[in-house]
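Lay summary. Proteins are chains of building blocks that fold into shapes, and those shapes determine what they do. In this project we predict the shape from the chain. Here is one chain we studied, written as its sequence of building blocks.
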Amino acid sequence: MRNCLIDSGPLIALFAIDDDHHARFDTLVKELSVGGLRLISTWPCIVEASYLLDMPHRFEMLRWVELGGVTLYPFEAAHLADFVRWMRRCSEAHKREMDLADASLYWLAAETGVTEILTVDVTDFSRYRLPGGKSFTLL
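And here is the predicted shape, written in a compact code that computers can read:
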């Protein structure tokens, strides 16, 4: 089973057929699913995607999540201190903010070791470095 992180951009693209990235991510998820695929994410990504999707696509995505289309990893409030530290560090070092959804995926990668990610935030996830200097593999 292949595990891949999924950011809010591809979640939006999968359900908004008029999205510029719809065809790319729809095809990619179908191709990866042939060999067994588990998409994993966090609640901040689901919330962000839900906010940005129009109805009825919002409800379709939430139903898909409910049915197990994506595995959600919860984090504890205590993890927010790490999130804030990473968000500040990225903002200071790169003059570009890391948002909460990105910080939660950074945490998830560090926790699980899963570094393959479906994202449209190529610039951001290309520059993020995990503990040990490991980088994300963008899909």
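What the prediction tells us: The chain has a mean pLDDT of 92.
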